[in-house]
Amino acid sequence: MLSLLQGERTREVISANTAIGRLLRPALNYTWTETEKRVLLEEQETFDAELIQEEREEAKREAEKGRPGLVMFTDWSWMESGAAGYVMAWKEGQSWKGIKTHMGYNQEAFDAGCASLARPLESASTRNVISNRIAIFTDLQAAIRRMASDEQGPGQKYVLEARKNITALRMAVLDIVIEIRWCPAHEGLEGNKKADELAKLVAEEPDATRVQGLEWFTYWDRPEERSMPLPR
């Protein structure tokens, strides 16, 4: 929401050839009160990334082969207690590194799956050096399909977050290639297996951070204020 005062300064802002000016231009014919509050709907970002769901064997080969750039595997977990969590993991040399997020309680399993795709895009967009090729693998086909639509409903929040971060990535690297790929579960894929194993730990024990060979970061490490998980 934006609050504008009546006067010449307001009209200067509206008539300027800027993004905010173009958004406000229709308001020129509006009769302003002393202080008028208007809700400005921003232009929706598009999902400018490739969503790839291949046949099982081909998808498995794609997940196994070495590829340039940043390659991440994600997974999520949901418990009967209502606890949910997800992880993203990537390999540096011979070691696995990752980010875990315990989402708290009273969460939906589908939201956890969608969040597990949005979070890697955020992580990639905030790296000191942004790769020109990013591949994200998940075994949840429903979450991949959800990324294609920003319609209201379960998972919408994470679709919008993903689109925002894709836009940031494309602004940073114009020729970047971003792929979100399906990979089959329980096929012995190293990255998928590691992500699956650690996602269960995140939901079961939010503080189970001492995992051999994995460098953990959590939302609690971030500078922004975060709400605590809901109680059981």
Overall description:
The structure is a single chain. Strands 3-8-7-4-5-6-9 form a 7-stranded mixed sheet, sandwiched between helices. It has 7 helices and 9 strands. β5 and β6 (95-104) form a beta hairpin. It has 232 residues and is an alpha/beta fold. The model is unreliable at 32-42 and 209-232 (pLDDT under 50).
Could you please say which CATH topology of the largest domain applies here? Nucleotidyltransferase, domain 5
- Tell me the series of helices and strands, N- to C-terminal: EHHEEHEEEHEHHEHE
**Percent of residues in β-strands:** 15-25%
Q: Uncertain regions: pLDDT < 50 for 5+ in a row?
A: 32-42, 209-232
Query: Distance between the terminal alpha carbons, to the nearest Å?
Result: 35 Å
CATH architecture of the largest domain: 2-Layer Sandwich
How large is the radius of gyration? 21 Å
Order of strands side by side in the largest beta sheet?
3-8-7-4-5-6-9
User: What is the C-level CATH assignment of the largest domain?
Assistant: Alpha Beta
Give the overall shape, derived from the CA principal axes: globular
CATH homology-level superfamily of the largest domain: Ribonuclease H-like superfamily/Ribonuclease H
What's the count of strands?
A: 9
Number of domains: 2
* Mean of all residue-level pLDDT scores: 77
Q: Based on helices, strands and strand pairing, what is the structural class?
A: alpha/beta
Contiguous helical run count: 7
Major sheet size, sense and barrel closure: 7 strands, mixed
